[in-house]
Amino acid sequence: MSKNAKDLAAQIRATAGDAPVQIGLILGSGLGHIANEVDGVAIPYGDLPGFPHAGVSGHNPNLVVGDLEGVRVAVFGGRAHYYESGRGDAMRLPLEVLKELGADTMIATNAAGSMRADMPTGSIMCLSDHINFSGLNPLIGEQTDARFVPMKDAYDPRVRERLHAAAQATETEMSKGVYAWYSGPSFETPAEIRAIAMLGADAVGMSTVPEVILARFLGLKAAAISTITNMAAGMSDEKISHEHTKAMAPIGAAKLETVLRRFLADYS
What we know:
With 268 residues, the chain is an alpha/beta fold. 31% of the residues lie in helices and 23% in strands. A five-stranded mixed barrel has the order 5-8-7-6-9, surrounded by four helices. The longest helix has 24 residues, at 242-265. The protein is globular. The protein starts with a helix and ends with a helix.
């Protein structure tokens, strides 16, 4: 663990208390309001040297540490994307800090485009696996042999099972599927979407995969849920834009919050 991570964790504990964090949540576009539901302390990213500036609209650049449904959580109200800086490891320090705070699990959320007619705008999808369509990797440059991270069951089967149980218990429809990471910031072309679909992807987006790779590298269990904010290029007549993504995110966000709250309430 880097010295920065240890120092930042000590700074956060001095503000938010010494109790160990159990789960980290990374919130995607339009989902930042969930951070406001935590009974705890919000620390602006600007007060945490090395944290991302979260320069994408629709994010809430605060780290919130406290209780949600009786579980001690650290909620990242925004993330850094590869397309903002060209750095695939932009979320490494925040995840190192999460590990240093005691967490053993990271759950990421994101906004994504669907490639399935049975998973329209407003749906949510629990990731079963991913395709790194970008070819980039946040561990490029890591010098130790720890960089050779096995990615079988990258999305922890037990955590996914419990997320699906929470969806079933709350009668919330939640699909499962494969997420493809596209670097962005431009959206995909219809030809690229056809190619990704042929490879076996069910949804596409511009985040999450680097975080899951980093989480596994750090020994954290990982899971992720997409909110479907649009049909992928060529799949419908929707006009795809970031504004559209932010406008549609709340539809799936309500379902996502329901599932997460039940998951946490049942967590032990």
